[in-house]
Amino acid sequence: MTGQILATLLPVFLIAGCGTLYGRFRTPDIRSLNTLNMELFVPMLVFAVLADRQAPLADYASLALAGAVVVLGSGLLLWPVAKWLKLETKTFLPPMMFNNSGNMGIPLLVLAFGEKALPAAVVLFIIEMLLHFSVGLYMLSPQTPLWRLLRMPIVLASLAGLAVNLGGVPLPGWFLEALHMLGGVCIPLMLFALGVRMLDIDFGDWRTGLLGAVLCPLSGLVLAVPLIWWLDLSGLQAAALWVFAALPPAVLNYLVAEQYRQEPHKVASLVLIGNLGSLVVMPVVLALIFTHVYPLA
After folding, report:
1. Is pLDDT of 100 > 60?
2. Cα–Cα distance measured from residue 186 to residue 288, given in angstroms and rounded to the nearest whole number
3. pLDDT over 70 (residue 272)
4. What is the CB neighbour count within 10 angstroms for residue 229?
5. Domain count, the chain
6. Is 235 exposed, middle or buried (0-12, 13-18, 19+ CB in 10 A)?
7. Other residues' Cβ atoms within 10 Å of the Cβ of residue 163
8. Which CATH number do you get for residue 48?
């Protein structure tokens, strides 16, 4: 089991570490890389996975519901905590709700469970992204029009992929293979970008960041455990929800906070210290998964 955990986590942190090392000496334009990834490579991967008729998406409805409850429920669960600690809810709650399902979640699930975990990883990623760009933006700015959501390439790719899959439209194998190859670029690029972002860590608000590093995975897991029982999730889907629930805050929280001028330095501490905290959290969660949820063969 220890070997499997190391085999899962070491590539994640090695690629992220390469990003940190490269960014330390070269200062790459990571915003342009992220734009390319989110507008081209990620939508291609999402479409390819969803359009593939070998992935019965109807089987993932309960997992999608569970993912949505984990995201929204984390905010509801931690709202009284934020009020009690006199934290600004617009600053504290979004990073607790919207986790790193892209940069860390997809690579981690694929490395832990193989390519068969990719549909579950993509479904959870889409749920988190849709909620982030609807509920999340509304939390920061209630005036934000929701129609902006339909302009996002990942949303368009999701709708097109679902239409192809549910409509039973056959696509040529060479076409899907090309999309998978291009979409596969996004996974290491996500981790590399995460590593570069780690250079921006601000320890000035380390207490808030440390609090978030504990509460983010804790709130997700508190919700995930009863959801697995209630929705009768088992096997790979239960394991995927465990990983999803324990993920640290998404880097995107910092970019959104910067755009809306919502205390971006505090959000940066929540995001980056939370991701550092995953060095401790994820091995524990994977150990529990491999022993109790999805035992090794």
Report:
1. yes
2. 28
3. yes
4. 10
5. 1
6. exposed
7. 12
8. 1.20.1530.20
Residue 55 lies in a domain: yes
Query: Is residue 26, in this structure, part of any structural domain at all?
Result: no
Tell me the one-letter amino acid at 198: M
Q: Which long-range contacts (CB under 8 A, 24 or more apart) does 1-4 make?
A: 1/287, 1/290, 1/291, 1/296, 4/112, 4/286, 4/290, 4/296
CA nearest 118: which of 101, 132, 93, 98?
A: 101
Instruction: Burial-class residue 296 by CB neighbours within 10 Å (0-12, 13-18, 19+).
Output: exposed
The string of pLDDT tens digits covering residues 107-162 is: 889 888 888 888 899 889 888 988 888 888 888 888 767 676 677 787 888 888 88
Whether 25 maps to a domain, the answer reads: no
Q: Can you tell me the distance from the alpha carbon of 242 to that of 236, in angstroms, rounded to the nearest whole number?
A: 10
Say how many C-beta atoms besides its own lie within 10 A of residue 13's C-beta.
17
Domain of residue 267, residue span: 1-20+34-292
**Who contacts 238 (Cβ-Cβ below 8 Å, separation ≥6)?**
228, 293, 294
The answer to whether the pTM exceeds 0.90 is no
CA distance 245 to 226: 12
Q: How many CB atoms lie within 10 A of CB 202?
A: 15
Distance CA 65, CA 68 (A): 5
CB 130 within 8 A of CB 72: no
Which pair of structure tokens corresponds to residue 170?
């056959």
201 occurs within a structural domain:
yes
User: Are the C-beta atoms of 30 and 197 separated by less than 8 Å?
Assistant: yes
Q: What share of the chain is helix, strand, coil (3-state, %, to 5)?
A: 85, 0, 15
* Total residues belonging to the chain: 297
Query: Distance between CA 80 and CA 110 in Å, rounded?
Result: 35
Q: Taking residues 209-225, what's their average pLDDT?
A: 94
Cα–Cα distance, 83 to 191 (Å, whole number): 33
Chain segment 85-95, per-residue pLDDT in tens: 999 999 999 99
